[in-house]
Amino acid sequence: MATANQPIELGTDRSIFGEAREYKERGFWANAASHVWHDRLTMAAITVLVFLTFASFLGPPILERFMGLDPNATSITERFLPPGEGHWLGTDYLGRDQIIRLLYGGRISLGIAYTASIISVSIGVIIGIVAGYYGGILDDIIIWVVTTIGSVPTIFLLLIATTVWSPSPEVLVLILGFLGWLGISRLVRGEVLSVRERDYVIAAQAVGAKTWHLMFYHIFPNVISIVIILLALDAGSLILTESGLSFLGLGVQPPVPTWGNMLTKSQEYFANAPHLVIWPGLAITVTVLCFYLLGDGLRDALDPRSERHGGKREG
Amino acid sequence: MRQFIIRRLLQAIPTLFGITLFSYLLMLAAPGDPIQMIGFNPDLDPQAMQVLRRQLGMDQPAIVQYVYWLIGNDWVHIDADGDGAGDYVDVDGDEIKETPLMGKRQGMLRGDMGLSIQYKQPVWDVIMSRVPKTLQLTLTALVVGYLIGIPIGVYSAVKHNGVFDQAARVLAVVGNAVPGFWLALILVMVFAVNLRWLPTGGTRTLGGTNDLWDQVKHMILPVTVLALGTIAGLSRIMRTETLEVLGQDYIRTARAKGLSNTKVWWAHAVRNALIPLATFIGPALGGLLGGAVITETIFSWPGMGRLGINAVFQRDYPLIMGEVVIGAILYILGLLVSDILYAWVDPRIRLR
């Protein structure tokens, strides 16, 4: 991570690698952005995510207005309609239109993924920096807490937590966010431990830099890359977790649709409505896939070491 | 080595205390209690429920309940009628020969996990009755995952950037992204409901003969769902590791000696690429008993996962704690095993 914020110096062998010319005289971030821009798979993932996000947040009002759809309007005569005219993806067991519910579900699922990943990564980074920077007893205590909570089977923690605070989407965000920072803090702590001993940090300390200044200006920039990669990967895993919980009936409660709870009852109507099983799951898979691809792409772009180590990381 | 193991086990003690205390307090914070859950029984009037709570110690503050769970309550004089004084049991109806009503639990530290409130049996017995079924499922899935995942990863690395490699990498990423429960639903829909090739769930056909093929048929779908994640993860790791090993000097030496490709790959490359797997087998072993909650639920598989989720729904406190403790111990042991394995397969590593 020493390369953060420093221009990449290219050696004299620039002529050997023709494409290296492209990267010349650029800073770390411009370089990374260019890397991502030329990485087709990552750009495709970004495009799909942007499309899904816009569709979920802007789509419902448009559909409601022009197609007269309502996510909660039930109709006995229109149950289990196959995809077709008027209901592009068919209707569910209460005669509710599926596409508008998928879009509203996307709002919740994506919203939870974005906010909860920001919360858990922020907590993880702050705790990781504090533990790594101060070391000593504070570090021991933090590591103990992390291993302790980490040793409880996650699914039980989530099960119990979701029954304690029977979740609205907002509460679910908090639960997922506050239970998700453990691994992240461990990664960040490891990184900070190695950065803390670098000469320039010691030099800054020697000239009397204050602790918060050291943390924010000298240590934090070194973990930004990890943070960005983790945000993407974490958002993907959070969508999986949230949909699993909602599927079990423990996450967001109906009638509010999410991709997970739209599948809850689907086991009962395999025979008459396979479209109700396929679409919500496809939405989850595509979204998670895109987040993972984005994470991998960002790792290639931001972490120069990953090329050699193939992305192998602790945790 | 022995010192290392002893120290790690000692370190696990405060962790286990932390886990149990944290889970206990969180669990008690959930609305409702087991008595309320069985309280739909019309024969139970609210007063009887209150007496039952006092007998089970649920009228006490959370921390006291935790202490009871930990060290038992056979030293506690129980006040079941709530008049502020400890009660007495009549022995053969004679009022003089009364004996104090004491708690009956021995506590976790004395090896007593308590009585499951749902099943009215010792928690240990309830859990042990489910362990074989869970192992049958998760262990098979683990073995299948390793047997398929490792060769895929190695072959990908050998045929680096070929068609197989590309396909395997796509499979690995997609396999990680597919939610297990949805995959399970789709498999059931296709193979059980539409094609009618395989059963939708359970462990064997009811009323059928207990033949092996019938049991295998019931395992195919859940094992597929559970193994896919392992295959996806392992093939990816093995690919990276093998690629890294193939670039090493001793591989070049082996080739220079004139060894055949097959011999170079299987005798030199794969053996060394397998080393990092030691770190993955530990957590996998730890997860064997608890990692299948959703799959077990979908396939109505009578294992630990489904037992656990029902325990949470029913607020069966002793049973929840039993599952948490066993899960946590296995997790900690799993990590320890993987550290030991790691040192064993790679002599360069010293355990401190």
Secondary structure blueprint with pairings:
The complex is a heterodimer of chains A (315) and B (352).
Chain A: H1 28-37, H2 40-67, H3 98-134, H4 136-151, H5 154-164, H6 169-179, H7 182-196, H8 199-206, H9 211-247, H10 274-302, H11 306-309
Helix pairs in contact in A: 1-10, 2-3, 2-10, 3-4, 3-6, 3-7, 3-9, 4-7, 5-6, 7-9, 8-9, 9-10
Chain B: H1 2-29, H2 34-38, H3 46-55, H4 62-71, E1 88-91, E2 94-100, H5 123-158, H6 163-177, H7 180-194, H8 212-246, H9 249-256, H10 261-273, H11 278-286, H12 293-298, H13 304-313, H14 317-345
Antiparallel strand pairs in B: 1-2
What does this structure look like?
The complex is a heterodimer of chains A (315) and B (352). Chain A is mainly alpha-helical and 315 residues long. Chain A has a single domain (53-309), classed as MetI-like fold (Orthogonal Bundle), CATH 1.10.3720.10. Chain A has helices spanning 28-37, 40-67, 98-134, 136-151, 154-164, 169-179, 182-196, 199-206, 211-247, 274-302, 306-309. In chain A, helix 4 packs antiparallel against helix 7, helix 7 (182-196) packs antiparallel against helix 9 and helix 9 (211-247) runs antiparallel to helix 10 (274-302). The two termini of chain A are 18 Å apart. Residues 10-23 and 306-315 of chain A have low confidence and may be disordered. Chain B has 352 residues and is mainly alpha-helical. Chain B has helices spanning 2-29, 34-38, 46-55, 62-71, 123-158, 163-177, 180-194, 212-246, 249-256, 261-273, 278-286, 293-298, 304-313, 317-345; strands spanning 88-91, 94-100. A two-stranded antiparallel ribbon of chain B has the order 1-2. In chain B, helix 5 packs parallel to helix 14, helix 8 packs across helix 10 and helix 9 (249-256) runs antiparallel to helix 10. The chains are: A mainly alpha (315), B mainly alpha (352). At the A-B interface, helix 4, helix 5, helix 9 and helix 10 of A face helix 1, helix 6, helix 7, helix 8 and helix 12 of B.
